[in-house]
Amino acid sequence: MAGSLIAILLLGTFSPMASAQFQSGGVNKEGSWYAGEGLKQGDYFSYSMCHVDYKECATFEIDFWIKGDKQVGSETKWLAEAVVYDGNKVIKGELELGKIAPEPTGGSAELGVYRGAFKSSIAWLSAFATSDGSSGGKGPKEFKSTSWGKIGNIGGEQVMPTAIETVTVKAGTWETVLVSWKTGGYVSKVWIVDNFPFPIKAQTWTHVSEGIPPPEYRFELLEYRENVSTSPFAGIVSTDVKAAEMGCKTNYERTQSIKKPTKNFSYQIHAFYGPSEVTQGCSMQWLIEFISKYDDTQYLNQVQYDLLLVDENLNPIRSIAQEEGRKFLFSPSGQALVDIMVEAEPGIARYAVWVYGLAPEGIVPSTPADYLVIEIPVYAREGSVTPVAPSPQIPSWIKNNAGWWADGSIDDSSFVQGIQFLIKEGIMKIPPTTPGTGTGSNEIPSWIKNNAGWWADGSIDDSSFVQGIQFLIKEGIMKISS
After folding, report:
1. Which residues of 447-475 are buried (b: 16+ CB within 10 A; e: fewer)?
2. Phi, psi (5° rounding) for residue 474?
């Protein structure tokens, strides 16, 4: 209430003076502030945050503890231990923070993307206010100052203190100074506390020339503790470390891709995923591009979607949006990066990219939903290291071909050509197989023909038949081009 009253007194009523006051800034509070003010050894912070440059402002948590000093060349820095909780991933490492400006300038490579988001959000005001004004530093900034500086984009507005507000976040209730600036018609806000190192809350917007701007970054202080003398992260192990111990791949690229229209041809989906051998209990990453059905080069904007694991009747088994506590996932740009842990059973998993429609975040789309189902072989771990191929699901009509070949109705070459076609078209799923160096002469051992006959009449299962096909490829008898 007091904060609101002060804000009213500062801004006045609807008058030219009120507008001028807002444009010039400054609040009726003595003192000054700079990024890192009061930072000391033993401080522990926990923030929930997002940044537009990381998964288009998907939320993650970053916790860090100021362990002490670190000498880097001639500079003394703060050394902080940090843990990031990003969906199902846990990333543990170190951050090096400057003492004049508490921006992360080094640390563990695995925290690189989060370090950049931290610098461009929680520590962003160090671009205007630092502990030292010499050697290019900005120096502390007065709360009564009419302006702390100007944002760099074209037509950028002044960054300035504009009000005193009492704000409640998960870490508690604080009397804050609101620092704000206007961006494309929207007001970006950061709430700071006198003699507290980092802002406690922010809601900012990306500068756009027209339309509704997407968030640039958001954060909120979840917890703050002082005089923490021992590491609060003892016993925490990074997900990648655990995954490596389990035999999961941790460094992989999105080598697999599919590009198809959705079921009702409302959109085009271009999906990339990796690793190439998706394994139960391990991680995988998706890059999903939402493309106009009229133009392959045009990305769609403001896409509300979900990534679902579904059964053969499209009943959802798992929703990534729900696991993140959201009704839907949101992609402002039409390109979405999604990390998941593979929970599907070994075999052929059906993932559905479910598009609810195009609308600003929080507004229900007016168009019917559409979807694309992508089938992916999922492998099981044998013991702790060796992936085991899932049992392939082969359409029953293929058995007719195998039966005709076994009884001599079609020749070897016709059978091989048929299998080649089925593999190339993705109808028959063959686990990753290293081809042999044979000549591809189609001289097939008789036991393979016996297998085909037994498979056709149900005496052996799909997996046994596929093992025979793998043998042909490994021996170079059957050639499958990449």
Report:
1. ebbebbebbbeeebebeebbebbbbbbeb
2. -60, -35
CA distance 40 to 363: 44
List phi, psi (to 5°) of 89. -100, 145
Q: Is the dihedral of CA 275, 278, 279, 283 positive or negative?
A: positive
Average pLDDT of the chain? Answer: 84
Q: Where are the domains of the chain?
A: 2-225, 247-388, 398-474
CA-closest candidate to residue 416, choices 464, 477, 466: 477
DSSP annotation string for 329-373: EEESSSEEEEEEE--SPSEEEEEEEEEEEE--TTS--SSPPEEEE
Sign, CA dihedral 138-144-145-149, equals positive
> Tokens in use for 163?
């009000």
Please check whether residue 178 is in contact with residue 172, taking contact to mean a CB–CB distance below 8 angstroms: no
Predicted pLDDT at 8? 33
Which residues neighbour 468 within 8 Å (Cβ) at sequence distance 6 or greater? Answer: 447, 448, 451, 452
CATH class of 247-388: mainly beta
pLDDT, tens only, 180-204: 998 767 899 999 999 999 999 999 9
H-only helix segments in 229-365: 239-245, 320-323
With tokens 């686990």, the residue in question is: 431
User: Among 248, 245, 270, which Cα is nearest to 340's?
Assistant: 248
Which residues is 350 bridged to in the sheet? 310, 375
How many C-beta neighbours within 10 Å does residue 268 have? Answer: 20
- The amino acid sitting at 387 is P
Task: Tell me the pLDDT tens digit for each residue of 93-150.
Answer: 999 999 999 999 899 999 999 999 999 999 999 999 999 877 666 899 999 999 999 8
Question: What tokens appear for 57 in the block?
Answer: 């402002």
Q: Where are the beta strands (DSSP E) in 226-282?
A: 256-261, 268-274, 278-279
Q: What angle (nearest 5°) sits at the alpha carbon of residue 35, between those of residues 32 and 39?
A: 100
